[in-house]
Fold these 2 entries.
Entry 1:
Amino acid sequence: MSTTPANRFVLVATEWFDGERRHAHGPTTFKVVDGRLAGLAEGDHGETLAAQGWPLQRVAFLMPGLVDAHVHLFLDGGPTDQATRSAHLKQNVEQLTDAARRSARQNLAAGVTLVRDAGDRHGINNRVRDEACDPLAGLARVRSGGLGVKRAKRYGTFMATDVDDATSIRGSVTKLAEANDEIKLILTGIIDFDAGTVTDEPQFDIPAARLVVETAHACGRKVFAHCSGVKGLDVAVEAGVDAIEHGFFMTREHLLKMRDRGLAWTPTFCPVHFQWAQPDAVGWSANTVGNLRRILDDHAEHLRLADELGVRLLLGTDAGSMGVVHGLALAEEADRFQEAGLGVDAVLRAATSAARWHFGMAQPRLAVGAPWEAVALGASPFGMGKLSQALGRVERVWLGQGA
């Protein structure tokens, strides 16, 4: 499915999306040299260039490689029984690393060329990130959160280290920044679905969370915060984290501040949607299923509002969570965005260029000079109905040199 580009070739796309907008006015010709987009022109110039010795390819729809902005590579989202999931976590580090490699391959096969790994306590994400730098490895590229930070005896043991006072925060964040691409802050626990809300207090107050952010920024690293619930969101926004992950129980006031302060949001519908759609896998009661539906509906309403207000949205799946399968989940998350009322262009932007802009990548769109990190689909997602119908038809994936 995935390949390293030949030294040069020409590709003609019937339609394409550059990461920001759709181009559907007719065929476009792309010239790729040494893994970078060397030129593009309106019209079909394929046969002319083929006659000059350029290998020719034709595709129905072209777009930048997809980005899953929130995954846990070492976790396997396929098994839905607790015994199997528990046994998976008891494997040794080498076995878990192999699982992470499989996850990265699954992502690439699904057109996901870049993932942001949201933390594991073994450093597997950093290891696979380094392996994925080789375009021949067959792995999706990895932006790694390495090991995050949390409070002792609180949620997040599988992906974070404990910090205590200000000295501990400064020292830990500074050390983690040497290996991590970003710093993960575990700000809250998980949602109590039986109660239908977040019941515990935030792990960090505003001054402590702000210290994490300031220290990370001084080290040239952004901060992304695991956070849900009004109290936790208050802390995240006021502390100035760069991105909020999950963000259930969002409010309009939070979104307005996020827009004005340039904070991104990765909503991660998939894990909660799975538990609503398949409650027997978790053993939820009818009351809890009702809570799940209410939470999802509220989340969709605020996602739609975020889009209207201009908050930067990143598409992330939390792949590795129960029922959230690496690679396949991205199309499902795209459906959730679409069901919330976002247009196809907005969803594709969240799944391609928005994350690259947020990560500070120099060339986040398909443009001349950019790495040829692209995906060809068998049909256009525009007018298809569910986005998953088109995103599930990946025909070719390219990982350009220097992407």
Entry 2:
Amino acid sequence: MKFNDLLKNSAKNLLRNKGRTILTIIAIFIGAFTIYLTMGINTGINNYLDQQITAVGDNSLLAVYKMDGSNNMMPTSNIQEYDPNKSSAEANVITPADMEVIESIEHIDTVKPISFLVADYIQGSSNTKYQLNAMASGDIDLELEAGRQVNNEVDGFEVILDQDYVEILGFKDAQEALEKEVTIGVSSQATGEQETLTATIVGVRHFSFVQAGRTIFNQALSQKVVEIYELGLPENLKNQSFIVQAYLEENLSSETIDTIKEALLENGFQGMTVEDEINMFRMVIDAITGVLTLFGAISLLAASFGIINTLYMSVQDRTREIGLMKALGMSRSKVFLTFSFEALLIGFFGAFSGIIAAFSLGNVINNYASSTFLEALTGFHLIGFSWSNTLTVMGIILLIAFLAGTLPANRAGKLDSIQALRYE
């Protein structure tokens, strides 16, 4: 019997008990659907995070700040003895001497402090004032909904507005906000006196995990805000920086960057690239999708027992038929292949239908999400599909189906033809 004949015969045999076969396929369908949809969510979110990394350039910048003393990437409990000569803030301030230490590390070109900006409010065309979360512009180009990056070479005050401020400041959309002026209130920490500054909106940013939720000031505006905020403060409290940017040499390998991070740790600092910061989100997403995938795996495990049961009952129902086929010359291996093909067909139909259903539902969810609750996240497809995911799910399920079918197929192959013909 040829391969095609074995395959056709296996397909016909599955139709002998349609109810049993369909129920087994449904069990596999549920597992395939769950796993493929979960992998799609993981792929979609990670693709968006990759876009975020690409949008801000390569890992040529390190954000460096003082360690809490534990040398751990994640926050830890680190209770230290009180030092009356050093405040908690001072313990985390990066001094000029610290910057010299950082700059002395091999492959670091220059180090620049990131100013600590404190603005009271921002006001647009209405009389309403809103709290403002601002940050000085670095050398990272943010993805913009409209406009351009701020110019750090000019004396004029420029801002890139976070998209959430567009409507509440009285602008119809991002395009209308461009080249409009906003008023920013800044108070002296020492005297409490407030000054107002007028800045021009040159861009509106998309949502980003990089500097999320912050309005970006150009260097001229940043320096003025710091100047007002520190007015009247003692000299030892001025020009404090809790984080600096370390500019690395170009085209460094990931191994070299890891070496730089280790050197920073040895000196009491921690360095993080943009990718490191975004990878924290990846860890959370991977953990959540991992749990969901586990549920799909449990469903597939249950389905594998369904395949075993279905084929065992099929062997029992067709015992005399198997005996007749072996008496007519069908070899043990071909009997084994016949039942193995039945298991693979059950797995294939379950996996294929589950993948198609997940793909269809995923497209519906993506269309709905992009026009509703994910509208602000431009370019974000919640569920992403790829050929690698498709082939992985299909391959795993076919393997499980084959292994599950091995026991009943082996039993069928071992049947003695004479005894099988006598079976009632």
